[in-house]
Prior knowledge:
This protein is mainly alpha-helical. It has 13 helices and no strands.
Amino acid sequence: xxxxxxxxxxxxxxxxxxxxxxxxxxxxxxxxxxxxxxxxxxxxxxxxxxxxxxxxxxxxxxxxxxxxxxxxxxxxxxxxxxxxxxxxxxxxxxxxxxxxxxxxxxxxxxxxxxxxxxxxxxxxxxxxxxxxxxxxxxxxxxxxxxxxxxxxxxxxxxxxxxxxxxxxxxxxxxxxxxxxxxxxxxxxxxxxxxxxxxxxxxxxxxxxxxxxxxxxxxxxxxxxxxxxxxxxxxxxxxxxxxxxxxxxxxxxxxxxxxxxxxxxxxxxxxxxxxxxxxxxxxxxxxxxxxxxxxxxxxx
Length: 299
């Protein structure tokens, strides 16, 4: 348990403690993170190709991902609706003209293409591809260091996080509701409850959840976690403009950890500038919780 947690926490803390003042260097770090995502997904695709009973395993991945997505998404939507009813979040902002949601969705689906390319290459069974598991561990450590650098240089102080009540409230609801959905999905599928909790702890962070759970539970669970979290992001992109009119908390919460990066522009254009501070805090907290909870439940 402790070794798995240390593998997650040590690189994250080391990255968090690295001060980066140069804006150009920070942009380079952001770009490196984007490339690391592609590397990790490619390696995941290669690992899939080395599975025994491949066809039955692919069906199992689809089944697991679908049931986890439905349960977690439904729990999140219900809990966030209740939060909105109890503590309404009002705004007079009018939506701006949005970048094509279909184009953004296609950008996300491109990530699936990287997994497919890795999978097809893995089918060749080249000898050097057998080192995919070692490569995934190294990529995970580097990814966590980069994420730590981003979090440490995000200019958010502890005071700012604590004082933004809406961001903290939505993140808390999403955290608890997702775990509830994961437990239900695990019961439906007959999986151990800890596996369900680990699957639910990705909060939309598909690159991290895929690689962490692949290392802990194997390519089937890891790939299901990736597709579950990717589906969350895709649905959030499509639903934000309509949800923000009646339930701003739902529009924010369904984004999960991506609310501080990928889905932030959609939130800002749909809900106004007052959506930005809660979105950043919400994404920051879930990005911090995700690796810790996945390590705990994967041990």
